[in-house]
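sorry for the late reply, my laptop died twice this morning and i had to redo everyting from scratch. anyway the thing you sent over, i finally got around to it. pasting the sequence first so we're on the same page, its 490 residues, then the predicted structure underneath. double check i copied it right bc i was rushing
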Amino acid sequence: MSRLGAVALLALATLLVPGAAPADEVFTSGVVTSEYGYHSGEEASLVDTRVELGAETGPVRIGLVYRVYETSDVTYPGALDLPGTEFQQRFAEFARDSFSVRVGDFFTTFGRGLALRSYEEVELEHDTSLDGVSVELSRGGVAFQGVSGTVEEEVTASRTREHVVRGVRVVTNLGGRVDVGASAVGRTSELVDEDIELPDDIAHFDGTVVGLDTSAWMGPVSFGAEYVGRSGENPFVEESDLDGHGAYLSTTLDLPWATVFGEFKDYENLAHPLVNPPTCVREHLWTLMNRVTYEIDLDDERGFLGEISAPVGEALYLTGGASEARTHDGDLSHWEIFGHADHSFGELVHGSFAGSWSREYLGNDLGDFTEHITGAAEFVLGPASARPFEVVIEGQRTEEFYGNEHTDYLMSFTTYPGDGVTFSVLAEATDDEYSDRDTWTSFEVRAEIVRDVEASFMMGTERGGKKCTGGVCYVEPEFEGFRVRLTGFF
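ok and here's the structure:
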């Protein structure tokens, strides 16, 4: 849809809905984040600025995200292939009572993400916003949503896949304790190469996803389930069908003495840029554990996650569980056993302790795997009403499938010396013989320089590594130099 078409549709919706005249008062808000980084190892610099603006008057809301991204040299580690300046998102929305329509860029999730999920994770540079129209309407206990939009996926340096997505979703509640939803999504895509013209049987793809989902609550038990079926053509094999499915189950038992949680997944031929179902893998907050987070295979995987947590007295809280993933042939892909404890040592010391043991299998006939054993501890010193000291210690033992063994260590110290001021030091070390460096150290100062404006300065070296959130991962490169960052809210 063109921008003029989107604006025209919004104007038409405004005229069609009674009482939709905009109010006189206009409310504006926004956030501006600007970062300058100098990488001394490559003698290259980076300027990255993100501006988010929004305005609202009566039932009408508009917004945009503007990005400025410039590097002094292509050698800047981890440099993104982005235009120097661009409007990443822009939208206009009309909402009145139980009806809303949004044109431009929008995010949406059908069910738990097996049929459709577009969203943004700023830190991981993940953005699958759809550019088009989203309409929502609620009447008589039934909620309806219809979407139509496009998104571009980068396949290689010269190839992109242009996706067109159209979908509908209906949700209703039965008896106050059960939600039932149905989704249908039609998808087409075109593979475009800047250098050559691709034959249609390779470049064009058509497919559909149809699904049902439900959530229910009864006393201490809650339950969720979703199933989707996928059909379409295989874009790489002429006259070949591509059928798949996705199934997800979850249940929670909330007892006075413990909470028990379980998940099950079964994904086959489900991968798509706009599909992001639950991973059924524990998402850790600890740095070293998060770097070895297992990434699921949406085309061939089934597995589970089980977890139990319980208070022990008034000062101790325990959590433990396990997860496993296999291919549909039964071969192991991953397993993990983990535990976590929070304990208060009086009023002045609070501690958190965690451990994890995991293996990732290569899927070859030899049964090769990489094993990680990780331990972590955090201590918060000082009364809750004052500014405490925070100390984090992590260690991880890794045995690679090819025989290499090494241990990584991480330690950080954070303190709050004044109002709105934070000072932290981070140090990492490794005995990995294949690593170019064996230690990394940095310090950072953050402060609120004026109201609603925060500044930070970081200097030193950072190891980098994998960062994951919600099944999306990003490999952060090593850094050596300094960064200055300003964030303002208005």
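DSSP finds three helices and 30 strands in the chain.
thats about all i looked at so far, will dig more tmrw
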